[in-house]
Amino acid sequence: MSFWVKNHDGSTILEKPPRIVPLFNPGQREFLEDEHRHRIQMQKRAQQSGKNTEYYIRKQSTLDDARLLDEHDSFYKTTKSLLVLFQIMGIMPIHRNPPDNNLPRTGFSWTSRQTLYAMCVFSIETFIVAMVLRARVKNFIEQPDKHFDVAIYNIIFISLLFTHFLLPVASWRHGPEVAIFKNMWTNYQYKFWRVTGTPIVFPNLYRLTWGLCIFSWTLSVAVNVSQYYLQPDFEFWYTFAYYPIIAMLNCFCSLWYINCNAFGTVSEALARQLELTLKSDKPAEKLTEFRYLWVDLSLMMQQLGKAYSNMYGMYCLVVFFTTLTAAYGSISEIMDHGATYKEIGLFVIMFYCMSLLYIICNEAHQASCKVGLDFQTKLLNVNLIALDTASQREVQMFLLAIAKTPPIMNLDDYANINRELFSSNLTFMATYLVVLLQFKITEQRGLRENQSESNMDYGE
Question: For the whole model, what pTM was predicted?
Answer without folding.
Answer: 0.80
